[in-house]
Amino acid sequence: MKRAYSGADFAAQDEDALRLIRTADPARAAEVLEELELKGREVRNPSAFVSKSLSQYPMPRRR
What we know:
The protein has one domain. 67% of the residues lie in helices and 0% in strands. It is built from three helices and no strands.
């Protein structure tokens, strides 16, 4: 059964993503935000995108 998410769930997820961006390596945080901007509406959940990107690759990828 799928769980229904409340506004509080999304707010908490947004706060977690902001905390991760603030504490991440500055170069990596910039990469993630640039990628998010490039993908635009393709990304359905920006907070999850940020969280997953920083947990998978915490250091700059220098593509």
